[in-house]
Prior knowledge:
With 146 residues, the protein is an alpha+beta fold. The chain has 2 domains: 15-70, no CATH class; 74-141. 37% of the residues lie in helices and 27% in strands. The chain has helices at 3-11, 16-23, 33-46, 75-97; strands at 25-30, 51-55, 64-70, 103-109, 113-118, 124-128, 135-137. It is globular, with a radius of gyration of 17 Å.
Amino acid sequence: MGWEAAFDRLTEQLDPYHELLRFGRVSADVDDPDEWRAELRRQARRDKIPIRSFASRKRPDGTTHVWAGKARIGADELRSRNALVAVQREAAGRAELRGHARIVWLRAVLGEEAAGRCEGCGGRVYVARTTTPPTIDGDVFDRRCG
């Protein structure tokens, strides 16, 4: 699979519970935060996955920002996430050398791979820590920002 297909797979929208399972966390802007959180907790209880969920104050537009994540991560998962962050930093540094603005990371899969976009031009970047050497690819490396 090429980096474009991997980027698309990472950035596709899933329902909140499947996004939590795939990425380890999920967030949304919703009209009814209690309903959103209760449904997520119900599904997590069914699968015996401990989660924590939070909600911000209601915004002027009537929505509330909510988020949830796995309640515990193990030492192996923490090491894996830290290793992915190192690859993300390397990719962002390489993109900066091509004149790109800050890379905004859109998705990261539990320490394995991540997808991001240049804040300036919208160029895409994909990284995967699971290959040796790590995969760092995207159209941000083929063009300059702007």
